[in-house]
Amino acid sequence: MQEIVDQAGSQLTPQDLKDIVVYIPAYNASKTLPKVLDRIPQLIRENCRCILIIDNCSTDETSKVGRDYQQRAGFEKVTVVRNEKNLGYGGSQKIAYRYCIQNNCRGVVMLHGDAQYAPEFAGYLIQSVVDGSADMVFGSRMAGNPLKGGMPLHRFLGNRALTIFQNILLGTKISEFHSGYRVFSVKALNQVPFENLSTDYHFDTEILILFVEHGLRIAEKPIPTHYGDEECYVNIWQYGMNVLVTTVTYFCHKNRLRHSNRWAARLGQST
User: Dihedral of CA 7/13/16/18: which sign?
Assistant: First the structure.
């Protein structure tokens, strides 16, 4: 896997990266954020448009850690935005994508502040957006060996069950709907009404559905799985229920089995 990453990353040039934003959603991530920032490949760190840290009203020193990095050599591209109230995981993404659209960026990679996803793989994922072969790319743990990487068995089984169910309803063949390691083409983001989506964790499912609905190109690449001592703020049972409800509601609306005002609004239809 490392050979693949090195080869793909080496194809990127400083020019490729000048309009790429590295977006880091962070909540109470003061202990793990340094691991993420230090491991962002130097080529990306020095040549991207910016490293945008969005602190979602943390109660620890997440923002201070980010601002301290702004003073370090090689981290001049770090920008810290602190939300004065917690806007939710989806709400944080909306701010980041809005920023990228307003600043005419080319692509944005979402790299979580809890160090669960390997920053070293960013170039590997960015490549397909830079070369124009995909509108969205995400790192799939399920395409690798998630159990070997420490994914708890109940999470593995839940992820597989939800993904199989979603693939059946959406007519897709995606190995994992629930990875948060994602790269978007900003041009593609500007084509979908992401502002109308949830502010919660199932925003990730809803935006995938929008990309499928709009016929945008979705690619996935295998990444390693890492579960450490980072704190998880996701209620997995509530998350799973929200994913099921939003997917089933979309399916019923799409197939005219039951009208959904929310999905009608998201799809630009009359309610």
Answer: positive
DSSP H or E segment with residue 207: helix 203-213
- The set of residues, in sequence order, having a beta carbon less than 8 Å from that of 194 and lying 6+ positions away, is 93, 94, 97, 207, 210
Considering the entire predicted model, what is its pTM? Answer: 0.90
Residue 4 parent element (H or E): helix 2-10
148-182 pLDDT tens trace: 767 778 888 888 899 999 999 999 999 999 899 99
Rounded Cα–Cα distance for residues 47 and 62 (Å): 24
For the record, the structure tokens of 181 come out as 């390691």
CA distances from 69 to 34, 35, 65, 73, 79 (A): 8, 12, 6, 8, 9
In angstroms, the CA 173 to CA 253 distance is: 21
pLDDT in tens, 88-103: 999 999 999 999 999 9
**Separation between Cα atoms, residue 151 and residue 131, nearest integer Å:** 32
- Among the listed residues 126, 127, 153, the one whose alpha carbon sits nearest the alpha carbon of residue 225: 153
Contacts of 265 (CB under 8 A, 6+ apart): 193, 196, 271
Q: Is 255 exposed, middle or buried (0-12, 13-18, 19+ CB in 10 A)?
A: exposed
171: region left, alpha or beta (phi > 0 left; psi from -120 to 50 alpha):
left
Closest to 54 in 3D by CA, of 45, 66, 44, 42:
66
State the burial class of residue 104 (Cβ atoms within 10 Å of its Cβ: 0-12, 13-18, 19+): exposed
